[in-house]
């Protein structure tokens, strides 16, 4: 089979597209013939050695793959060859044949495409956990989404609307702001003049929840735009700059700083994670949410696809076709 290999930590341009032996499933494992593979910002961090975990090299990156089960290992009765599924794994998805633990594999509804299924895993899973468990976002509250045109940002916009919040999206270009409005945002703002714009949009009250996957200077604007009892979500640092919080702001405004680490949530709360997936799948089946697929590229172009995401050029979800 063909796969993308990270031979050693370094720039994503070092990734190699080459032949690898097809995997055999062990006990409680399955092999999936991939039809779509999701590309995520953390994949780029992982191959550069900048992510929380550092697997031994060489390895196959990638966390999401959807397709049909090719074979199953011993002890598996709930899945069988031919089933349409999506897998959420630590690594190994950038391949034509994907080995996955059976407990990280989910059956697909008939109407769900493999591409949408990949989008709903990491990006939408992160945003859903952030807004459901960490922020406990409520109807009628105001949600601010920074970096709103990326895959997690658009997911946060759509999930916020599904919950019933008023959503203010922030993105860097007219094209990206248009995508945010298409995803359901009530307002789409540029970063320039953001502080005053947020005052105007909230009548001076501030936002109840701020979703920040960007970091950098925009974080300080969000930190000053929080309402009393607000929740400022730290999701990531796509800007490359880890900001500092003037903690007197949290004291004076009486809001909370809340960390969001979706991988930890998946490991520590598997039942809640499964329930989140069920809600996302139900919303998709009812037409309440629909992931935006940005581009589709051959598996061989994984390095270029990753670089585009690292450069913050993607608008929505990037999919590799094996």
UniProtKB/TrEMBL annotation:
It comes from the Bacteria. The keyword Oxidoreductase applies. It is an enzyme of class 1 (oxidoreductase). Its EC number is 1.6.5.5. Keywords: Oxidoreductase. It holds the Pfam family ADH_zinc_N. One of its GO terms (molecular function) is quinone reductase (NADPH) activity. Residues 10-320 form the Enoyl reductase (ER) domain. This is NADPH:quinone reductase.
């Amino acid at each position: 089979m063909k796969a993308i290999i990270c031979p050693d930590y370094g720039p994503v341009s070092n990734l190699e597209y080459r032949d690898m032996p097809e995997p055999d499933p062990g006990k409680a494992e399955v092999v999936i013939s991939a039809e779509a593979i999701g590309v995520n910002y953390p994949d780029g961090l992982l191959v550069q050695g900048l992510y929380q975990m550092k697997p031994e090299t060489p390895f196959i990156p990638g966390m999401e793959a959807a397709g049909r089960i090719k074979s199953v290992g011993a002890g598996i009765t709930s899945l069988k060859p031919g089933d349409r599924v999506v897998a959420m794994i630590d690594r190994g998805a950038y391949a034509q044949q994907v080995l996955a633990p059976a407990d990280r594999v989910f059956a697909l509804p008939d109407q769900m495409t493999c591409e949408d299924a990949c989008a709903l895993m990491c990006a939408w899973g992160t945003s859903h956990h952030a807004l459901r468990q960490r922020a406990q976002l409520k109807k009628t509250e105001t949600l601010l989404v920074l970096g709103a045109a990326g895959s997690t940002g658009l997911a946060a916009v759509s999930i916020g609307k599904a919950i019933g919040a008023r959503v203010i999206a922030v993105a860097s270009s007219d094209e990206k702001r248009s995508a945010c409005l298409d995803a359901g945002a009530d307002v789409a703002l540029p970063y320039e003049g953001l502080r005053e714009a947020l005052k105007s949009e909230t009548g001076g009250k501030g936002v109840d929840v701020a979703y920040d996957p960007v970091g950098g200077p925009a974080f300080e604007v969000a930190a000053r735009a929080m309402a009393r009892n607000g929740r400022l979500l730290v999701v990531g640092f796509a800007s490359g700059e880890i900001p500092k919080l003037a903690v007197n702001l949290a004291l004076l405004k009486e809001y909370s700083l809340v960390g969001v680490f979706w991988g930890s949530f998946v490991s520590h709360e598997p039942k809640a994670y499964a329930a989140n997936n069920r809600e996302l799948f139900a919303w998709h089946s009812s037409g309440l949410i629909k992931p935006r697929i940005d581009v589709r590229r051959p598996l061989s172009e994984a390095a270029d696809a990753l670089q585009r995401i690292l450069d913050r050029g993607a608008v929505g979800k990037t999919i590799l076709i094996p």
